Amino acid sequence: MSFDAEWAQHKALARSAPAPAPDTGGGGPAGTLVAGSSSINGNANLLIEIAALLHEGRPDGDASTMARAPRAHTEVAEQVLRFAAFADDQFKDTVALFAGLATRLKTTGTAFARVDDDTARSFLAGLLSSGQYVPPECK
User: Fold this and answer.
1) CA of 19: how far to CAs of 15, 29, 33, 100, 120, in Å?
2) How far apart are CA 60 and CA 88, in angstroms?
3) Residue 59: which of 37, 81, 36 has the closest Cα?
4) Which of 15, 42, 70, 108 is such that its CA lies 20 to 30 A from the CA of 6?
């Protein structure tokens, strides 16, 4: 599958996701933000894929060797080498940033699932401890 086809598939999937619930005036800090563990993990996976695509398309080291002396003037060779080092540094920083964001998002997704699970468990525990069985014929 080509990159363009895969990217179009991801965009179509993102557009087909359910719309967030309308704001009822509650005015919470999140506003209309709706998150789920699957969307968080999916976005983390997308960040990892972007980092991998960037890494696959990393700058070619041979491109800067074409401008070295004696093929180019010494000052030109120095500036090309300086730029290549800067570009490589920026590239590595970008890939590390995407990987770091993905890791942080995965951690957030795990914490979200844990909180969601704790909420369900506390509801069930409250229901079991303070609930009372009423037979259907006594209702």
Assistant:
1) 9, 18, 10, 28, 24
2) 10
3) 81
4) 108
Mean pLDDT for 112-136 is 82
In this structure, what token pair is assigned to residue 26? 């509650």
8 A C-beta contact, residue 62 and residue 131: no
pLDDT tens digits for range 3-19 = 788 878 877 777 776 65
State the number of CA atoms in the 13 A half-sphere of 83 facing the CB. Answer: 13
Give the ranges where the chain is alpha helix by DSSP (H): 3-15, 37-56, 61-65, 74-130
In angstroms, the CA 41 to CA 50 distance is 14
* Three-state secondary structure call for residue 25: coil
Q: How many of the other CB atoms lie within 10 Å of CB of 51? A: 19
Exposed, middle or buried: residue 28 (CB in 10 Å: 0-12, 13-18, 19+)? exposed
